[in-house]
TrEMBL record:
PROSITE patterns: HTH_CROC1 (PS50943). Residues 7-60 form the HTH cro/C1-type domain. This is HTH cro/C1-type domain-containing protein. It comes from Methylobacterium jeotgali.
Length: 208
């Protein structure tokens, strides 16, 4: 359960507004209001809120400080990172709300707090990434064209997609999916307000 009082106290201590916290996390101010009022029992943005408030995730949600059911290693383990699923449901890619396993921490994610891994479930980024590949994600690196990212929706949505960032401006990302390029589709322009988080993919473990 989210410790909403801890979030409020820390935000006030740091002297930042709800609007500023929402901007740092990548969600709307009304979503922050709901969290702070205790109307939200859990949120997938625990890591983002913790980073914005300079806290550890378990200080916001106690389950992040304990082993998940059936898993011997905590989310913040120095030797492992949580592994999420990225699956297609009803034509839309969704990231699992909770990790289903852990993997040994890749070298590229050594000492990267909040790092995670994602098992890819579709061919959109083939041949760069194939179905079944495990992608290594660093959520702290700057967003720069020429790299592939896991883009994530706001508003506590599970929506996510892996794309190559082609260019960007203040309002939009211009992204590319390799398989769609083969099929003749052009680069897509997506709103940054709808997809505020771009976490860089720094490596992969190929399936098999």
């Amino acid at each position: 359960m989210v410790e909403h009082a801890r979030i409020v106290a820390r935000r006030v201590e740091l002297g930042i507004s709800q609007a500023e916290l929402a901007r740092r996390v990548g969600i709307s101010q009304p979503a922050i209001v709901e969290i702070e009022k205790g109307r939200v029992q859990s949120t997938r943005y625990v890591n983002e809120i913790a980073r914005a408030l300079d806290l550890q995730p378990y200080e916001i949600d106690p389950k992040f400080g304990r082993s998940a059911p059936g898993l011997p290693i905590t989310v913040d383990s120095p030797t492992e990172v949580p592994l999420f699923n990225l699956l297609i449901r009803e034509g839309q890619a969704e990231l699992s709300a909770m990790p289903f396993s852990h993997i040994a921490r890749p070298t590229a994610l050594h000492q990267v707090w909040g790092a995670y891994a994602v098992m890819l479930g579709d061919e959109t980024m083939s041949p760069e990434f194939e179905p079944g590949d495990t992608l290594h994600v660093n959520p702290h690196l700057p967003t720069l064209p020429g790299y592939s990212y896991l883009f994530r929706e706001a508003e506590d949505s599970l929506g996510a997609m892996v794309r190559r960032l082609v260019s960007m401006d203040d309002s939009n990302w211009v992204v590319r999916a390799w398989r769609k390029m083969v099929d003749g589709e052009k680069d897509a322009r997506i709103k940054r307000t709808g997809w505020p988080m771009a976490h860089r993919i720094v490596g992969k473990t190929s399936r098999g």
